[in-house]
Design brief:
The complex is a heterodimer. Chain A is mostly beta strands. Chain A contains no helices and eleven strands. In chain A, 35% of the residues are buried. Chain B starts with a strand and ends with a strand. Chain B is mostly beta strands. Chain B has strands at 3-5, 10-14, 19-21, 24-26, 32-39, 46-52, 60-61, 64-69, 74-79, 88-96, 100-103, 107-112. Classes of the chains: A mainly beta, B mainly beta. The A-B interface holds A 31, 33, 40-45, 48, 50, 56, 88, 90, 92, 97-98, 100-101, 103, 105-106 and B 4, 9, 33, 35, 42-45, 47, 50, 52, 91, 95, 98-101, 103-106.
């Protein structure tokens, strides 16, 4: 009964370092999303995927890359971390259009 | 452009009382869906209620109900018999097209004992 699992839950990086956030879902959902949540700004879409092997840019894609090699996994990469990328990152998935999104528990990322 | 506006950054309610959280949205789509999500201090995003725009009947889920005014593009959430566990951030969201979900900036609800 895992749903959407995000790894890691917390991470501290130095400016310029790279890292990958992993999102895994076990609900066979087609659609997967990466958001960032900043104080006072709600959730903003970074990238999304409508199926295995596909990705597309969302509202705030700069500085991030994604991959969806397997249907159940959606990876978010930061190639050269910047302090402006300090945020809480949420992964979500959904099955069909109009259905609610299922969210992971979030990853708190701090970049010094 | 699609927008979702929550004009109340913070609201307070006495335990057992009723509170209404406001949300207005704008979309050019004729087919869309509206949601309220709850985010407690644990940071989880929890679905509270869902409304299909083509349905005139307001959605209800136990103590939670919505007032959906399509012409006014308004989608408010009413919480009846408020409980301490209702304290959280509440986000309104509009879903249209294939993938697009737009979230409001949230309303922090405090429940006073």
């Amino acid at each position: 009964n895992a749903g959407v699992t995000q790894t890691p839950k917390f991470r501290v990086l130095k400016t310029g370092q790279s890292m990958t956030l992993l999102c895994a879902q076990d609900m066979n959902h087609e659609y997967m999303y990466w958001y960032r949540q900043d104080p006072g700004m709600g959730l903003r879409l970074i990238h999304y995927s409508v199926g295995e092997g596909t990705t597309a840019k969302g509202e705030v894609p700069d500085g991030y890359n994604v991959s969806r090699l397997k249907k159940q996994n959606f990876l978010l990469g930061l190639e050269s971390a910047a302090p402006s990328q300090t945020s809480v990152y949420f992964c979500a998935s959904s099955h069909l259009r109009g259905q609610p999104q299922h969210f992971g528990d979030g990853t708190r990322l701090s970049i010094l | 452009a699609q927008t979702v506006t929550q004009s109340q950054p913070e609201m307070s309610v006495q335990e057992a009382e009723t509170v209404t959280l406001s949300c207005t949205y704008d979309t050019s789509e004729s087919d869309y869906y509206l949601f309220w999500y709850k985010q407690p201090p644990s940071r989880q995003m929890i679905l509270v209620i869902r409304q299909e725009a083509y349905k005139q009947q307001n959605a209800t889920e136990n103590r939670f109900s919505v007032n959906f005014q399509k012409a006014a593009k308004s989608f408010s959430l009413k919480i009846s018999d408020s409980q301490l566990g209702d304290a959280a951030m509440y986000f309104c969201a509009c879903h249209s097209g294939t993938y697009k979900y737009i979230f409001g900036t949230g309303t922090r609800l405090k429940v006073l004992a």
